[in-house]
Design goal:
Blueprint: H1 5-8, E1 10-20, E2 30-36, H2 59-62, E3 64-67, H3 68-76, E4 82-86, H4 94-104, E5 109-114, E6 130-133, H5 144-147, H6 150-157, E7 162-168, H7 174-183, E8 191-195, H8 200-217, E9 220-221, H9 225-230
Parallel strand pairs: 2-4, 4-5, 5-6, 6-7, 7-8, 8-9
Antiparallel strand pairs: 1-2, 1-3
Helix pairs in contact: 3-4
Length: 236
Amino acid sequence: MAPDPARVRTLTVSEAFESIQGEGPSAGAPSAFLRLAACNLRCRWCDTRHSWDFRLYRYRDQARRVGVEQLAGRLRQMTSRRIVVTGGEPLLQARGLAALLERLGPTWTVEVESNATILPGAELSPYVHQWNLSPKLSNSGESEPRRLRREVLAWFRGLATAYLKLVVVSAADLDEADELVSSFDWPRERVWLMPCARTRAELRARSRELVAHCIERGYRLSPRLQLELFEGERGR
């Protein structure tokens, strides 16, 4: 069935704002954030449930369909020319996102954050400069068939612009992380471990615990500047 042209010209948006990138290889970079609504996973520790859990949050309060022309105009009013597209799971709306990025033009640097369960498609891929991928470990509470799509990860492994960002709850997750990295022969300098935390105190404690493991394994340690600086405040 052909896609609905009207839906390709719109995106379901949770929020858009300016801040600094808080995680991964470009942490600290001033960025325009576009959070798209809806997700295909239900991670137990998710800190952006408002973008997809419409049993807990009222849809009309958390999401709206916005035309790509209108959205492009809003983003151009922001100072930064780096855009971080996040979610939810933004690749659920890959065609609409491609239409938006086409309208923004080549002066923008584009990062897309994804759970790596969906292939982006030929329309979107040429616009993306950096893929921040967060395949989920078993600590997410999701079953392996839902959270790990090996053919998708194998495709991303072929891109020098794709980085892994693995959420770690405890040291018990590290063997699982190692197995995932090794099974795809993923370059360890493109792997970030990110501590699961909901408060600054928890973040600092778990980050300290991960330092030795990053040194031992050759991984990077991802900050979570949005938690360290704003402790969960929306739109920051």
